[in-house]
Amino acid sequence: MESACPSDSVYLEEAAERRIRNRLRRLKGQVSGIERMLEEHKSCDDILVQIAALKQAVNGVAVELLQAHMETCVMACVEAGEGKEALESLKGALSRVLKHA
Predict the structure, then answer these.
(1) Cβ density class 32-45: b for 16+ within 10 Å, e for less
(2) Distance (Å, rounded) from C-alpha 66 to C-alpha 58?
(3) What is the CA angle 26-27-32, rounded to 5?
(4) Where are the domains of the chain?
């Protein structure tokens, strides 16, 4: 759904973007660690534990981004008096995240 609310020109605050980038860098490290475990023939159980931790970390990135989205993009719509558009934006974001949870 295309929105005409001001959030189209709003982006994350710098601090939120920095936190998300840092989380993504840690994810890269976790993926590299799992690859090393495979190369070193670590136990499947140990690798699965690390994959579960990776999934949780990805979920953490999604939560961080959703919070930032609400504080910037969604809030801009609300402040512009376009609460319905704000709700639609939030519902769409939640749907995308939860669909793949």
Answers:
(1) eebeebeeeeeeee
(2) 12
(3) 100
(4) 11-99
Least confident of 5-19, 38-52, 86-100: 5-19
* Count of C-beta atoms within a 10 Å radius of residue 68: 19
pTM of the model: 0.79
Which class would CATH give 11-99? mainly alpha
Q: Map tokens 């140990």 to a residue.
A: 46
Q: What is the dihedral of CA 10, 16, 20, 25, to 10 degrees?
A: 120
Give Cα 29 distance to the centre of its chain.
17
Q: CB 53: neighbour CB atoms within 10 A? A: 13
Instruction: Give the residue from 95, 89, 90, 91 showing the smallest Cα distance to 2.
Output: 89
| Residue with token string 């609460």 | 83
**Six-digit token string for 11:** 């982006």
